[in-house]
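Format notes (please read before filing issues)

Several people have asked whether sequences and structure tokens are stored in separate files. They are not. Every record keeps both together, in the order shown below: the sequence lines, then the token lines. Line labels are part of the format and must not be stripped during preprocessing.
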Amino acid sequence: MESLEITAPTAAIASPEAGTAEIIDETLIAQEAAAIERIKVLRPQLGDDVVILGHHYQRDEVVQFADFVGDSYQLSKEGAAVDAKYIVFAGVHFMAESAVILGREDQTVILPNMQAGCSMADMANAEQVLTAWDELEQVFMDDPENHIMPITYMNSAANLKSFVGMHGGTVCTSSNARGALEWAFAQRGKVLFFPDQHLGRNTGKDMGVPLDEMVVWNPFKPFGGLTDEEILNAKIILWRGHCSVHQQFRPG
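Then the structure lines:
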């Protein structure tokens, strides 16, 4: 199979526009144009053996080659439903992991850039969550599983999805977060929600959970920076995580 190779840029020019100086790399632009033309030739040769999944956040130059465009969960299901042997996921690391989880054993998932990550997913790792679980056990003087339901948002690493499964919890999307919380509260009195504190808080508030019954767990502080009383009185323990991009939006 022919491979694509992008070499380092060699020339750049400055172009003032609207009072700012934009650096336009002519070499990189030319290389990208050449890569697009090569993909147009190679893609038909691969046929149904390959399916390309393009996340909504990708640029038009990438999305134009996608067989399916959508959010991470939808795309993972689309990839598993086709006969393709290879799934090329134009997205970030946790998305490709989700495609592996939902895909068939005979499918191989390819992430074009292994360094592509999600800042929010990186705000909760397995070691931190395990530490939090151990500290909660000390607070309750009992197995946390008897008191707290762990829920992780889809935008998280595969080992965190495994963690919640091992402890009777679940994985939610933004569209079914309320259903996940209702399901959790029907079985246990409290929820540990990670990594997106805002999704957990806004969903809890919409369900009528008072703000003073939702606390934020800081993984960089012992016991999340909370007192035993705060933990015991909380209905939802929110992980201190957020989407770095969404944080940039402000009320108009």
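For reference, the curators noted about this record: The chain has a mean pLDDT of 88. The CA atoms of residues 13 and 24 lie 6 Å apart.
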